[in-house]
Amino acid sequence: MKLFSRILLTLSFLVLVHAAFSQAKRKVEDLSDEEIATFFERAQSSGMTEAQLEKAAKAQGYTSADIAKMRSRLTQLGETKTKEKTTTAKSKTSSKRKVSGKLSTKKKTAKNGEEEDSEDIAMEEEEEIDSTKLPKKIIYGANLFNNKKLNFEPDLRIATPVNYTLGPDDELNIDIFGEVMDNYNVTVSPEGTVKILNLSPIYVNGLSVDAASARIVSRLRQLYQGLNKPGSGSSAIITLGNVRSIKVTLVGEVENPGSYTITSLATVFNALYLAGGPNENGSYRSIRVIRNNKVIRTLDLYDFLLKADQKDNIQLKDQDIIRVGDFDSHVELAGEVRRPMVFEAIKGETLKDILRYAGGFTDKAYTYSLNVRRNTSRELKLLNITQ
Q1: Helix (H) / strand (E) containing 56
Q2: At what angle do helices 64-100 and 50-59 cross, to 10 degrees?
Q3: Weakest-pLDDT range from 21-25, 145-149, 333-337, 382-386
Q4: Can you tell me the distance from the alpha carbon of 64 to that of 201, in angstroms, rounded to the nearest whole number?
Q5: How far apart are CA 376 and CA 378, in angstroms?
Q6: Is beta strand 342-345 parallel, antiparallel or unpaired with respect to 380-386?
Q7: Distance CA 107, CA 308 (A)
Q8: How far apart, in Å, are the Cα atoms of 122 and each of 85, 91, 99, 129, 286?
């Protein structure tokens, strides 16, 4: 039975050989790649060797030239398929490497020391890259200066601040009404004075608006007797018109250090916002305002963020310097806290303070035991704190 099947398979293959080479006698180049591939696959499935196939073809009356042409076409077709497979494999490898961001994924074999592609290493590298694509850790307070919806520009339409001090280029509006009607618009000169017709210059530099008003009214009584006195019938009101510009400098760990020209009503927050706030190395707890080579105020932004306390957000003066120092230490809280972020800690603060900055635990928190990882100069310490 096996011998019969073998004979039947050989006869079938001879029919294929005859069909193929009957076309090859005319011109082998006329055969398509698909026809050549079909003949090659069927020849392989017949189980006959190349010598047996050649002998069978010659038995059918085909010449060695015909057989050589067919062999050449089969060789070219095989090389083309091999190149296509190699190109596809390289494309896949290149795609993996592009995703992982690595130049190669190789490892040494234990036998001959040659390098070969390793799928396992590629997978490990992709996992490693995924870990680097984790969101950047947010420092508590950074959103205060990164939020485009926040605007710290001072409102110039508000009433004149009580502590505002006059300086060059400030404008004053003097309105006189009652039995006498008059109006003056004067500007503080570089020398710090204002000039009113028929009066000598009045020095107002460095005075508050109230103090400057009292001085100006006192001099105006030379022109308007009894001005602002009961029963005189005439009064005067002095208000601040256009305010001057000042120049302040921001140095240290700020996003955009440099000199900024701002309105004289601006505060420390206004200047910090223009400079982009502290950078990733900057401190939110130690921002110093330097005036005439002396530190006049130290600002802690956490007071504002947590309590809306602006006691240190003072009004700036011309040539003030704002210096943002380096942070002392960072503490990261992760897990079941309301604000899982990186917090800046200053000397003397405890875990309780940091938890307060984070808004406390969530309802799902297991608060009996806390895991702490502490980096030291020699090792990574793992602590377990129970409450």
Answers
A1: helix 50-59
A2: 140
A3: 21-25
A4: 122
A5: 5
A6: unpaired
A7: 58
A8: 20, 14, 10, 11, 46
Rounded distance between C-alpha atoms, residue 364 and residue 233, angstroms: 73
**Among candidates 374, 327, 334, 330, which has minimal Cα distance to 358?**
334
Q: Are 269 and 289 in contact (CB under 8 A)?
A: no
Q: Residue 266 in 3-state DSSP?
A: coil
Q: For 336-362, what is the mean pLDDT? A: 91
The tokens describing 96, both together, are 């993996």
* Position 355, amino acid: L
Q: Tell me the pLDDT tens digit for each residue of 306-330.
A: 999 989 999 899 999 999 999 999 9
Cα 260–chain centre separation: 24
Residue pair 365/348 in contact (Cβ under 8 Å)? The answer is: no
Q: Which residues pair with 139 in a beta bridge?
A: 342
- H or E element: which one contains 2? helix 2-27
Q: What is the pLDDT of residues 36-85, one digit of tens each?
A: 666 666 665 555 566 666 666 666 566 666 667 767 776 776 666 655 65
Q: What is the pLDDT of residue 54?
A: 67
pLDDT tens-digit map of 18-36: 555 454 444 555 666 676 6
Q: Which two tokens stand for residue 368?
A: 């009996």
Alpha-carbon distance of 256 to 196, in angstroms, equals 43
Task: Give how far Cα 200 sits from Cα of 13, 181, 228, 361, Å.
Answer: 125, 21, 20, 68
Report pLDDT for 85: 57
Residue 309 in contact with residue 300, Cβ under 8 Å?
no
Interatomic CA distance for residues 273 and 182, integer angstroms: 42
**Closest to 215 in 3D by CA, of 226, 224, 203, 227:** 203
Residue 332 · residue 295 · CB < 8 Å: no
Query: How does the average pLDDT of the chain come out, rounded?
Result: 77
pLDDT category at 368 given cuts 50, 70, 90 is confident
Cross-strand partners of 380: 375
Pair of tokens at residue 128: 């490693």
CA distance 267 to 312: 10
Residue type, 277: G
Beta strand 106-108 with 115-117: parallel, antiparallel or unpaired? antiparallel
